[in-house]
Amino acid sequence: MPNGTGMVVLASDGSLLVTQMGMSMMGGPGGSGSASLQRAFVDLGSNGQERWRATFTQGWPMMAASNGDLVVVVVMNNAFMWRSMSGSGWFPWGNQPQGGVEHAALVGLDLATGTQRWLTTLPGDMGSLPQYTTDGSRLYVSVTDFGQAGMMGSSSMRQGDTGGWATQMTNKVVALTRGGTVLWTLDLSQSGRMMP
């Protein structure tokens, strides 16, 4: 929900990790001046008090995972949403929005302070469900790419010009080291076509 909380994850030290997806009235990225409009990732102590807040100027923080002193959060790009709203590239009329970013990212943060350790670009629009291996040495994340085909049509009310979303997505699995280095990427769309 805009201006509210998204995913809640229990960290390894007992604190709560919560995403906040600030959005302006026109659906664009919220400004950093108002806390209610921030795109942020927040760590809450067991008493409900905020311990730290990591804000993002590009993209929206989504799902997170925690292992030991490392927290990872997937940051979704906003290109596909802006392409969909305009029907002609970036919104409005092909211009890149302020704070626009074309790729999803996985960001590694220090659990105690929220300081960014690393940022890795992901091959798509939206990453989801980051998972650690049992020993915490490796991470896996699913990445969806909507591509230019994800745009709404150009007809009146942008209806009827494209197929369903299921025909336009590609899905990948990305394996990374604990330090954010990509080990391999598997494009699942190459092994079989997604059907509506």
Beta strand count: 12
Approximately what portion of the residues adopt beta-strand conformation? 35-45%
Oligomeric state of the chains present here: single chain
Shape: globular
Largest sheet: 4 strands, antiparallel
- The gyration radius over C-alpha positions equals 17 Å
The helicity comes to under 10%
Task: Give me the secondary-structure topology.
Layout lengths: L4 E6 L5 E6 L17 E6 L5 E6 L4 E8 L2 E7 L2 H8 L18 E6 L5 E6 L4 E7 L5 E8 L24 E8 L4 E6 L9
Antiparallel strand pairs: 1-2, 2-3, 3-4, 5-6, 6-7, 7-8, 9-10, 10-11, 11-12
Structural account:
This protein has about 200 residues and is mostly beta strands. It has one helix spanning about 80-85, and strands at about 5-10, 15-20, 40-45, 50-55, 60-65, 70-75, 105-110, 115-120, 125-130, 140-145, 170-175, 180-185. It has a 4-stranded antiparallel sheet, with no helix packed on it. The chain has a 4-stranded antiparallel sheet with strand order 5-6-7-8, with no helix packed on it. A 4-stranded antiparallel sheet has the order 9-10-11-12, with no helix packed on it. The two termini are about 25 Å apart. Residues about 25-30, about 85-95 and about 150-165 have low confidence and may be disordered.
